[in-house]
Amino acid sequence: MFDTTFLAGLLDGACPNATLSLVDWEIVLAELRAERLTPFVYAQLRRSPAWRDLPPAVQRALSEDFQTHSLRTFEMETELAGVLAALHADGVPVLLLKGAALGRSVYGSPAERPKSDVDLLIPAGDQARACQALVQRGYQAQRLLLLARWQTRYRSQQRLVRPASAERWFVVELHWSLFELPYYIDLIPMSEIWQTATATADLPGALLPDPATLLLHSCAHLALHHSQDMRLLWLLDVDRLLRQDSLDWDAVLARAARWHLRLALRHVVQQTQARLGTPLSAAVQAALDTLAPAPVEQAMWGLGDDRPGRRWRRVRASWAAMSGRQRWRYAGWLGVSMLVAYPETLLVSRR
Question: Helix (H) and strand (E) counts for the chain?
C-alpha cells in the first residue's frame, strides 16, 4: 500500500523521496502497474523538473509503459471513432461515459487514463437500433438477445464485443441509464443528463456529461458497484474531477439530493481526500459533512457489488424501495428475465 504523502507527490508530478533505491523503485513501479497508474504518473513526472532526478532505469520503465498504453489507446480511440460514426449514421445520439469521457475532459490526454472497454450512453428508445448498428460492424451482443424490449425496462446496459486480434477484444457497453439498479433507473431523469451535456472537441457527434454529472457518476459507480474495491485509478478520477475549476458544487449537491446519491458523494470524496490528499475548500468540506442521506441510500450501498447473493440482495432492496405499482411491473420483469436467462447463456456460449 502506498504512503499517502508519497503517492500524492507522484500524482502531482513530484518525487518526494529522492533516496529510494532501485529495488524500492521496482516495488513502486509494480504497485503503479497493478493500479494502472503508470501512464498518468509518467505524464505528470515528464512535465515536471522531478523527471531529471529519477534514475535512468525508472525513466526507461515509465517511458516504455506509457508507450505501450499509448499504442493501446490509439487502437481503442480509432475503434471508438468508427463506432461513433456507425451510430451517428443511424441517427443514434451518443454521450461518452467513464474512461472515454474522463480521459478527454480531466486528464491531459486519453492515453493517461487506461480503459479496458468503452462505455457509451444512448437514449433508451434507441437500444435496438444502436445494437444493430454495432452488429453490422462485426460486434456480437452478449445479453438482451431475447425479449429485449421487456428487459430494457429494468436493465441499464448491453455488452457487445468483437475481436481486435487473436488475443484481445474490443468491448463496447451501451448504457441507457447510469446504474444497473432498478431503483436508480426509475429515479434519475436521463433528460437532465442529456440537457446539460456538451459537444466533444475531437469526436464529431459525441457528447460529454457536465462535470457535476461526471463526479456523481464516478462516486456512485464506486459506492453502488465497487464498494469493497475502491481502486486507486477510480479514486484518481474523482480526484481529477474535484480539482476542476468548472465544477459547480451547487449543481453537484442539488443533484446528489434529488438522485439520492448523497451518501455515495460524501463517502467517496472523503475516501479520495484521505488516500490521495485531494485539496478541498472548507466550504465544500462543511457541505459534505452536513449531507443527510435518505435511509434508502444505505440500503442501495454496494448493491451491485460482484459478491455471492448479489441478485437476491438487489431484488429485496429494490422491492422494498418501490411503490405498489412499481412492484407489479418489477415482478413482471423478474419473471421475463429469469425466463430468458438460460437460453441467452446458451446462445452466447455457442458463438
Answer: 17, 7
